[in-house]
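Components:
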Amino acid sequence: MTSTIDSPSPSGADLRGEIAISVRDLRKHFPIREGALQRVAGHVRAVDGVSFDIRRGETVGLVGESGCGKTTLGRCVSGLSDPTGGGVYFDLTGDDNERLDSILASPEADRSEELKQELKQIETRHRVDLLQNQDWLRYRRNCQVVFQDAFASLNPRHLVREIVGRPLKVHKEAFGEALTERVVGLLERVGLGRQHLYRYPHQFSGGQRQRISIARALALDPELIVLDEPTSALDVSVQAQILNLLNELQEELDLTYLFITHDLSVVRHMADRVVVMYLGKVAEAGSTEDIFEDARHPYSNALLRASPDIEDDPDAALITLEGSVPDPARPPQGCRFHTRCPVATPVCGWEVDDVVRWLEDEPGMFDALTDVTRQDAFNADLVFSDESSASALAAALRSAKVPQAAREALVEVKQAGNAVHVVFEMVPEVELTTRGPGHVAACVLERTPELD
Amino acid sequence: MAVDTAAGRSSRTLSGSLGTRLRRFGEISREVLRNPTTLIGLLLIVGMVAMALFAPLLIEPNTPNPYQMPRDWGALNEPPGTPGHILGTTQQGGDVLYGVIWGARTSLRLSLIVVSVTVVIGLIVGSLAGFVGGKVDELLMRLVDVFLSIPELIFALAIAAVLGPSFGNIILALAAVFWVKYARIIRGQVIHIKQNEYVDAARVIGDSKLRIYMKDVLPNSITPVVVQATLDMGNVVLIGATLSFIGLAEAGLAEWGVLVSQGQAGISAGRWWASTFPGLMVFLWALAFNLLGDGFRDILDPRTESKR
Amino acid sequence: MTVSHAPEAEIDTTGAIASVVGLRVHFESKAGRVYAVDGVDFHIRDGETLGLVGETGCGKTVTARSFLRLVPMPPGVHAGGSIYFRPHQPCPECAGTGCEVCDDTGRLPVPCPVCGGEGCETCGGSGNETIDLTSLSGKALHDIRGDRIAMIFQDPAKALNPALTVRSQIAEVYGQHRTEEVLQRAGLGSAASMLMRRFVSQRSRLWERALLAMPPLRKKRMRVERAIDDMVSAALAETQIPNPGNVMARYPHELSGGMKQRVMIAQALACNPDLLIADEPTTALDVTVQARIIELIKELQARRKSAVLYISHDLSLVRRVCDRVAVMYAGRIVEIGGTEEIFANPLHPYTRGLLAAIPSRSQSRGQLVAIRGTVPELIDPPPSCRFVERCSYAVAVCGEVDPGLENVNGGHRVACFIHNPPDMAVEVPSFSKVTS
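Structure:
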């Protein structure tokens, strides 16, 4: 298969292992507007600083639960949403990639004019949200998407021939008879046929609609396909058919996949490398084997232990996670997972918001809380309506009601009348650390201790 | 329901996209014919539109202006059944049958012009607001709010007061007030449809915004507009008749509202025919379009929304 | 020609809280009659969790909804069969709190009115009162719904009324079915007037409501409200919701998905039902939340010993929750038996296909065993095995005769000629003969 990249470079097969997409410190924040004047009251930090590479020919699995930002990330990679910070870079050569990383490593203020120029050059030709004209069209031809809901992603008023043939028309690759023949070719490749050309989407089953969606994605011979939960809405046996098809196509056409899903068994089956996301950041990333055999982040472990089909032993209890996902507009300090982590340590980011959260579970005390004056996330005064509640809190903070790790992180607990002054040790955000070749995790612990 | 698998039924007599589209049209038509009330509406409309279109053939047009009621000074206030005037005559000697037939033509003109103009304006404004969004949306919606707060009748009276009573001014007044309805409908639909994944899919292919609007957003947003337009064909005539009844159109116009107004003085004296027949026509016209519009609503909407 | 299904009487149904016998529910559509549920037989024992598993269109949801007559009857048509239910009553000894007599469940079966507990034809030999759910209506149906049989649905956001607080929704259950208990707790007991009774069961007339706002009756009303508060709080606490007092006052949209599901479970279990029907209760939830809800359901079921009919398309999940599993395909049950038995030894080719289709460690990429073809349309189905088009072992007889659900060993039943060869001199299919 000839390369679809029109810059002078070797054929597709030789480019295996080269980087197709580089995600660098990607951020996507959505403003929250409140009040009659619609002032911006805060931001939902859907994606908050994510970096990883997708190499040619591989399948990267992006997993996480709802609200972790994986869908938003997928949309930024495919160019449907523009990032608020950082960028998605397409088709960088190995050298360019290194240059980019070294430029980005230095803080913006320190960069020389030369470096800034170089960065600008790289960005105009490679950063997805800054691409223009020819470069943009080239990106569109090379990056396609298969959506979750096949029914919603096909225009109900268009015939299959229109739907699958549209990319060819838009990029002026074929018309009329030639277009019809190419569409038939695509349909046959995904297991459909000529007889399906002149039908409407509602006349097909879920699995067939997904096949039509895939045929459309293949129309322009793309490099990369972003698959956003492509089989989540399908029955198990249909899912098996579609997954087999996707594999076949990947081998035949040398495709690269970004496979977004919440289903761990599917990811284990399909992906070469896995990126686990939690609340807008990467919790852990590595080869599939690394993640499934040697997960180093407590969240990855919790996900694995909570999935019924992963554990081959049906009697092993499903490990459950307490609490619920925090508000993405106010992500927790330190490690975002510390509010639910069963093995949190004193340096995991205990903060004032945690105290407020514990109070919510104590009805009497929560009602007595009148005000919280924060100096910063770790330092605040909690004011109650009466002294006894204040003393109760002060006592509770020293007792076993509060996790030991949190108690150790407390620098100061001082009661003064109705108010309690609380100070936690200030800790920075937890960074991703290397655990092995290509294996990173954002946890202060080396390994996750056994959870029972 | 899924029709079949890959092994599927082979192409029928008419294959190709034309075949499928014709089949679809056939399905919709069959639905229309199956529903008795919709069918009645359709038949009434066909009858009245035919009457309007063939008016010059059905009855000798008046000179110089066929839209003016002719005056037969020798036959004032004749009851129905008089030779030459089957439905009777008015106080001015106008043939009631003439008024009925040419009134249909007037009504057709009125409704067609008003509905087309309002739909087009409403489409443009609503699409801009919904598709572009942001400040444009805000601005346009405030404009819509201003127009919405104008009561039709008062506005028509105001225009008449300023520009003088004429049928053309009635058209103007109605158009000025009716377009906001469509702007709102379309805006709501566009905002809703925009969120569908097939619009994202079109963006990912690289299609231009205009093409996406024309091919994906507009066709899927149009259904409620079609329904509303059908209903309005009836309502416009109803309101138009009201306006001309209260005197905003030229006297002597061959228009149902005018006729009703001029004939009402004679009712107490027992001369019912001059008002009743035109009044009946207004009723039938509005009824017919309402029936058809309701039928469309039932047939078109669930079909396009949730065919699974 | 069809082989008839095993008559219900052959299967031991003592101790069964519900038996489905030959249930047929069809739908009239423009294209014809859809045979959505077409001859379903199974029973649920008291205290057990039975899983009903199948893919889209197999009829499991229609079957489950038939228990409470929730299938819209045009276009649906009850074309045959019955669902027999043996309701219980709150144990007279302990008033529903649990004691030795009722084995701590708080419920005891109602003796059959015809034979007084001896066993007769009406009650199918069980000695307990037996009702046919498919023929219930009006007050009798209302008494069963929410009280003896409760249901939790897939999407809690859609199943909870967004305009009512959590408290109101759960209070409704108590108001409708536990009027006496509420009055007792409020200290009003049998002296309570009709006015108060109507208030509790939410049937107050307009002027009565005005009266209740005024001083003399106001105090009584407050007591009733507080009694209901306590009961609602206790129900919520049982589902491990922290801070029930706080949650009670909230509206559904203020709660997370997992919490909403707990509220729905609390509402369903409020009156200690004999049978809980769970229609894909965790499909809309995240994996970690799903794990907790499953543990909760298991725990509650173990404690109250109520029966659970668990509907799901996820076999792995069902394995963890259910004692027995019934696999449905195209409106019929194709295999039923103990969970471990079915997973260790799946007999029906469809069950095997389903299990093999789940991506697991042992399968290399691109080699998932996919069942070819798709679910057949259920309009005018031919009198053959419904799975014949997709079966790799089908032979001639499979395309002509419909196999019935027959016992293979113990309670393990299968509808397939591989295990129950027909009584005719024809070629018999087997797993060693792959025909396509």
